Amino acid sequence: MHIITQTHDEYQGMSWQQILAQSVKTVAELITQLALDTSQIERTLRTKLAFPLLVPPTFVARMQKGDWNDPLLRQILPVQHELQQVEGFGVDPLGEQVTNVQKGIIHKYRGRVLLIAASGCAINCRYCFRRHFPYQENRVGREQWQHQLQYIAEDSSISEVILSGGDPLMLSDSALAELLEQIAAIPHVRRFRIHSRLPVVIPQRLTDELLTLLQRSRLKTTLVLHVNHPQELSTEHAKRLPIWHRSGIHLLNQSVLLKDINDCAEVLIELSERLFELDVLPYYLHVLDRVQGAHHFEVAETQAKQLHQQLLANLPGYLVPKLVREIAGEPNKTPLQG
């Protein structure tokens, strides 16, 4: 059975910025909107947050009312487990401080470089590996992009530029157009990649204007989405994503394997099938990056491998995402073989 969340009419005709402005920012507001019974779970919640609650109304609308175990709710709900100090979990799980070679640039892998294009996100996922990242030290305005672009221009081994953050699609279309134009002017850069969860939580971010500016670039463009559960996909995605695919934008998805959210072969199979129906190719299935405050999401590596074997047994190979772990200091992501 395919899970397709219906589009809610109240968001029709609204811009992504208008929807974002209505985001839920407190646990109390979230509880009210979802009609949750706090008597069962109140002591496990956190209301005073260093890593704040933030979730757009379009994502809240895809959650099941009254259900504390809703897989979307569990991804964004602050709980007391986040306060526990667990051995092996740190503030910089991928060693990015070492590869943060200059303000706004992370250069981990040969041939590609990552630009921190924006420091904010549309949603605060509780398992985020950059929840402790020093964004204040890496915030770069449009007037400072030249320093980043000079770094890329001086390294002819860089053939791909990746926009990350934060979420790069928090930038306006006009800002993205300006940045893309300047990147495309560097001759040795051939590919342009955007990693974003914003179009997942607010599909209205997939604007015609953004599509047009990406189409016009000489660079081969890839949009990597971050969908963890088929319930995150709505009828609005079904309208917009195939158009992007037909327009020549490569659409990939990466997921994080999360305990009690998608650590189930049936859910992962459904996710791959549904993504492909929307012209998105499953790309990576990450085991959890061991960031402080997220240990309660971790799925044991042995279980992860077993799940991946079930995917291989039930899906054609092109619908099976690569099971990987990112290890600090390694020259590439590490495949996990069953």
UniProtKB/TrEMBL annotation:
<keyword id="KW-0413">Isomerase</keyword>
<dbReference type="InterPro" id="IPR058240">
    <property type="entry name" value="rSAM_sf"/>
</dbReference>
<dbReference type="InterPro" id="IPR022462">
    <property type="entry name" value="EpmB"/>
</dbReference>
<keyword id="KW-0949">S-adenosyl-L-methionine</keyword>
<feature type="binding site">
    <location>
        <position position="121"/>
    </location>
    <ligand>
        <name>[4Fe-4S] cluster</name>
    </ligand>
</feature>
<feature type="modified residue" description="N6-(pyridoxal phosphate)lysine">
    <location>
        <position position="333"/>
    </location>
</feature>
<dbReference type="GO" id="GO:0046872">
    <property type="term" value="F:metal ion binding"/>
</dbReference>
<feature type="domain" description="Radical SAM core">
    <location>
        <begin position="107"/>
        <end position="330"/>
    </location>
</feature>
<dbReference type="Pfam" id="PF04055">
    <property type="entry name" value="Radical_SAM"/>
</dbReference>
<comment type="similarity">
    <text>Belongs to the radical SAM superfamily. KamA family.</text>
</comment>
<feature type="binding site">
    <location>
        <position position="128"/>
    </location>
    <ligand>
        <name>[4Fe-4S] cluster</name>
    </ligand>
</feature>
<dbReference type="GO" id="GO:0051539">
    <property type="term" value="F:4 iron, 4 sulfur cluster binding"/>
</dbReference>
<keyword id="KW-0411">Iron-sulfur</keyword>
<dbReference type="InterPro" id="IPR007197">
    <property type="entry name" value="rSAM"/>
</dbReference>
<keyword id="KW-0004">4Fe-4S</keyword>
<dbReference type="GO" id="GO:0016853">
    <property type="term" value="F:isomerase activity"/>
</dbReference>
<feature type="binding site">
    <location>
        <position position="125"/>
    </location>
    <ligand>
        <name>[4Fe-4S] cluster</name>
    </ligand>
</feature>
<keyword id="KW-0408">Iron</keyword>
<keyword id="KW-0479">Metal-binding</keyword>
<dbReference type="InterPro" id="IPR003739">
    <property type="entry name" value="Lys_aminomutase/Glu_NH3_mut"/>
</dbReference>
<protein>
    <recommendedName>
        <fullName>L-lysine 2,3-aminomutase</fullName>
    </recommendedName>
</protein>
<keyword id="KW-0663">Pyridoxal phosphate</keyword>
<dbReference type="InterPro" id="IPR013785">
    <property type="entry name" value="Aldolase_TIM"/>
</dbReference>
